[in-house]
Amino acid sequence: MTSSNLEYAIEARNIIKRFDGEAAVDGIDLNIRKGSIFGILGPNGAGKTTTLRMLLGIIDPDEGERFLLGSPNPISKSHQVGYLPEERGLYQSMKAYDAIAFMGALRGLPLAEGRKRGKQMMADHGLGDAIDKQIRALSKGMAQTVQLLGTIVHEPDLIILDEPFSGLDALNQGKLERLIRGQADKGVTVIFSTHVIAHAERLCEEIAIVAHGKIPFTGKVSTARDRLRPQVHLETRELDGTWRSAIPGDCQPLGHNWHFTLPKSGVEPLLHALIEGKAGIESLSIERPGLHDAFVHIAGEAVARKMEADAAQAAMGEAV
Ligand SMILES: Nc1ncnc2c1ncn2[C@@H]1O[C@H](COP(=O)(O)OP(=O)(O)OP(=O)(O)O)[C@@H](O)[C@H]1O
Question: How much is the pTM?
């Protein structure tokens, strides 16, 4: 049986995985569009890696079904897939371009072609000086970039990256974001897991939020953000007038500053009331909530705090 839906690179329906009787993934549904950049967001232990492993066919779900590039047997598509696992590692004595070629060969790319592409990719990614160096002579960030290039050297249709940003400094994180965008521009589907919301907010049109083995939200980033109403920050010269009726009744000024949730009627009636009522607008900003606020709203404060702690711990690891 195959999936008839050619629109999706990945489909998962109610997949469940238990370890020692405990559900690590507890009934997840996913539809990931071909050619999109899709982020899987959640703290450590939420079930991201287990989900990715099931999607890839490294482990099978106990219940439910998943389709990778239309197939219920993801391993059969492995030549079309690139996978960067959470556990990083390359053979230390291999030369960098050879390591890339070796990874390509595991996915069906002839070694000679892999070596040629490996050298070119390293040059294109600013690692030209390191082509002939052994992996052990590279910095951690360089070795991770080499592993990433090895993940895509066979030009896969689908790339799955487990926590690709962790272990990279800010410069290399920026390079990785550009690389991911470049792949998507070529029509490649990129799925990555992360506990850093900013990466997902910058890169993804669609995300899944994972918490305690479940997905409380999957869909467009903009839809997640629209779950919260915009916040108004207003400074007025006056403190009273007919315009006060446009401001929520429970909002009290701090000095001449007003902070409140934008009323459902929207921006225009508010502006009309302020101008016609001569409130004397000194400053006005209307902020749409970011993905971080939406994440806290959807996943809850405890999950958000755990994820921030994970991100801080990972950043400390990068600093050493
Ligand atoms: N092979 C395994 N055997 C037993 N328990 C496992 C196994 N793999 C994962 N788990 C458990 O399943 C839960 C989800 O783990 P998973 O690795 O999928 O989370 P994660 O969101 O990827 O977090 P991390 O980034 O820490 O890997 C955790 O409680 C973990 O300890």
Answer: 0.89
